[in-house]
Sequence to fold (355 residues):
Amino acid sequence: MISAKRRETEVFSLAFLDCICCGFGAMILVFILTIPQKTAVDKESLDDAQARVRAMESNIKLSQDEIDRIAKSLAAAQVELQDLNAKNTQDQLKLTDRQKELLLMLQQTGAMKDALATLLGEKKALPTDAVAAPLPIPNTDRRQYLTGVKLRGDYVLFMVRTSGSMLDDTIDAAAARLDDPDVKKREAPKWQRTLHGLEWMIATLDPHTRFQIMFFNEETTPVLPSRTDEWYSTDDRQAIQEIVNRLHAVVPQGGANLERAFTTIRYMKHLPDSIVLFTDGLPTRSDSLPSDGDVDQQTRVRYFEAAVRQLPQRIPVSTILMPMNGDPAAPGLYWELANASKGALVSPAKSWPDT
Fold:
């Protein structure tokens, strides 16, 4: 008996192929469906890339413009630097010429100094009979040192206070010096400054100007009692020498009667054209308002007012107010006198007239 032939089993059946085809078709479908989305995404990326490219191109253009501007500035700076270098070269040449001129001037100055020294030596060797001037010759650079003091006219009267207060700058210090011997009183620094200032002002007078000096404390006396009515000139060397000797012999002492001093002026044979008053404060004595003992500030103001009433009219009075502490009303009253008489008020430094 012939046995029946066994049927071979097929690996790929129809159902399996159907599944494969369906899956492949699904993939194709998914791919087809996603193509538009991918195209949109790619377009956005492309647009973004193009925008970045345009921005970079704009930045490159701006950078190129900035580079061009910097290049132009650099070129201008190089031109300016060349001009400065050329100018510096010219300045160096000019400086060299000036240095040569300066060196020549220094050489000429040295030669002139040598010539001057030779002339001075020859001058000293010349015989001379000249006598030293009795008054100090003032420094011409300081001739206008006392600003505002104008010695008007041909006749100038110097009124010099010689009371005990002229011994020092404070009342207490001046009172302490009253017991000193006359030699020390004459050497008091404040009094010496007053004398030097007076001599300095006399030495500044023009030769044609005549002058007189009056001392006042409790009395009023002329500088040379034997020549009361005379007016002196700086050309009169004998008179000047006598005056200088007399100035350095005066001893400050006593009180100060300004009223009597101004009354003396009223009765002079020839009235002065201007008055220079050397004082350090208000008067302490008066003829019309007598008082015993010490006087207070208000009384001294009344003494001053009484003195001013005795002054002849239309004579400028310039006051040289020497430093004095403890007399606060004095500057104001003497300023009023200067203003009313068209004179001046000066309170010089302690170093005047030496510096």
